Fold:
Amino acid sequence: MAKRLGENFWGDFFRLCVAVPRAMKVTLINLFRRPVTVHYPDKTRNYPDRYRGLLALTYDKETGEENCIGCRLCEYICPPQVIKVEMLKAEKRNFAKVFTLELYACEFCELCVQVCPTDAIIMMKSFDMSTADRRELLLDKDRLHQIGLQFEPSWATGNLLRDMQTPPKAPKAEAAEPAARPAAAGPAPKAGGAAE
Ligand code: SF4
Ligand code: SF4
Structure:
């Protein structure tokens, strides 16, 4: 028994002597490597082209009016129900009287963007809104419009995404017209009687 304990001790000691220098070698190699992290927020990386992050509301570029018509489609589709909209009816068009979005509970699923008929709600190429105060992530209409002006918009809008997802239509003209009658078949039979 005593002999077996002694054997284990020297075996363990030998393995320790091999493992420690091996681990220290990895540490030493990484000590002189260039870091793979960046000192955010002092330094930031470029976002990929198709990045979609923060949500925002948009204005019409020509008229300067709010694009949101208060239709509430985004509110109905949102899985965690973080959007609340109240419509304001006006003479020419409708607006959103109230628009709030609880960003802290958003899943970033993009469904609200996909259903918006006027491209009023979009995603931005940024996630740059980290905060320790949860209340700052309850976004009202003004804040959502401000985010829309502050950051670069992503490429995807509701109308673009719907265009991409719509299957191509079958060519109508060819399907509706009957095949041309070959000349060798002679004249077409008269309607309601046998061919002469
Ligand atoms: S991205 Fe998804 S979860 Fe977030 S507000 Fe839009 S629909 Fe709701
Ligand atoms: S953001 Fe779009 S979907 Fe939502 S209420 Fe406004 S117009 Fe309707």
The pocket of iron/sulfur cluster (ligand 1) is lined by residues 55, 77-80, 82-83, 101, 106-112 (CB under 6 Å). Residues 55-165 form a domain with the Alpha-Beta Plaits fold (CATH 3.30.70.3270). The longest strand covers residues 95-102. The chain has six helices and five strands.
